[in-house]
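Is zinc ion placement plausible here? Inputs below.
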Amino acid sequence: MSNERTSHVVLTSHSNQLFKDIPQVKWGEKDPEKRGPVIATVSEKENRNAIGSHSGSYTVYRALSIASGHFPKAHRPELTNTEGTASIKPHDAWFDESKIVTIDPWGADVNIHFKKFLDEGYNVKPTIAVTQAHLHIPEIAQAVDAGRIKVDGKIVKENKEIKCTKIALEPVWYLPGMAKRLNIDEGELRKILFQETGGMFPELVTRPDLKLLLPPIGSTTAYVFGDIDKLQDPETELTCRVHDECNGSDVFGSDICTCRPYLTWGIEDAARTAQRGGVGLIVYFRKEGRALGEVTKFLVYNARKRQEGGDSAATYFHRTECVAGVQDARFQEFMPDVLNYLGVKKIHNLHSMSNMKYDAIVNSGIEVVNRLSIPSELIPEDAQVEIEAKKAAGYFTPDDVKDGEELNKVQGRKLDE
Ligand SMILES: [Zn+2]
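Reply from A.M.:
I modeled the complex. Tokens:
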């Protein structure tokens, strides 16, 4: 078996690229050897049983490394000592082909699950990795100082850092399952994915036998506080936030929205839950600007601030739709896949005011006991427009909901102020 990248171009649009002896993937199969490994290597094209390439959006940077001569063509990952610091135990949802359709549940520790295939020379790469982390977050240090959370030396260390396990998950899309969940035809889904990526993956339309796509999109990260094995126990209290990326707020502290306060408050409560014997879970999705991207988001900010009457809660969603065509492109239908991968059956405290997230979680068979929205004292002044608009649109809140003139009166800062 050659493990050299060939320099000649093989057109995937030619259907004579069908290879009958590649390991088949039987999604939902219980035994990993029978389920089969996901093989998306481009170095041995004849073995591929998936469309696309590893590393999500970073696949394009790998191409640049190769183009500039920095990436050794024959490189294969050497996986010694890369095993996870904790393992997610297989459970029922892994064996249901419709429960998890955007992640490969066998994507971690492939050197264990798919040793037979690696020994035979197949280039099987992980799509999930599990490690440990200490989080140093100013808001958590403040919570310790304010007495809201105590130092216990285990979850919260003496230096106010929080210890946790973190899990990185790259997308592996099982197209028949995704089509079913969206209630559309698989062929139609493939055709539109092909067209809207500018024809990036011809196999979407020429290779209906390949059921998996590794799309060039961002990954997802799960942060677990407390005993990871208890995630699968519905009797253990679970506090959970499913958070969609907002770089401006999450990282840079921009005050136009509530994203960072929601995130840090979620982490604080997740750690507190772990301290009383429960588990905390924060899932971070790379779906910037409601998955419309940051350019669209900044355009919307300007349009909101410059519109007649100023930035108002009454027109919050409308301005996004004007610029982007839709209000939201996050497809929360697929968000619970991570929860189902981890074995979550019951969330006691869900930190989110989004009905789309709540409905998706409940529809995926996970019970939600309490819904928690952000305490009002944590909402930045300029983010009142967003929060009141969301409440008026029916997002979950225990507070009063404004409408009509009251909603109009909730105004954000003007540009240059
Ligand atoms: Zn935000």
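Short version: DSSP finds 17 helices and ten strands in the chain.
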